[in-house]
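# nightly structure sweep
# worker-07 picked up a monomer target from the shared queue
# config: single-sequence mode, recycle default, output format = structure tokens
# input follows
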Amino acid sequence: MTENRLDKMRGELRRGVLVLAVLSSLKQPHYGYSLRKQLQDAGIDIDEGTLYPLVRRLAEQGLLDSEWQQAEGRERRYYQLSTLGGELLQQLTEEWQQLNGALGNLLEQP
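# output follows
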């Protein structure tokens, strides 16, 4: 398999879990950079061109609440799960756990 094809497939695999990762990270309030840093520290490297549109889309869907706060001499928009976002996170987590278990079984087969 070519490196280009592997990169494309890796990207498709990652896209499917980014929403879950972002929602999970926003159980606590974060502004854009701090959210990106938390994800990177957890091993999920995401560039700004992917993260910021995703966060805006989730907020527009009512899954995140946001507010401007003064921090370190500048105003920053902080995002956190809304009630609806928390409910969705719980449902997606259950779905992820089921899929992960099923996939684990398939990967262990000879």
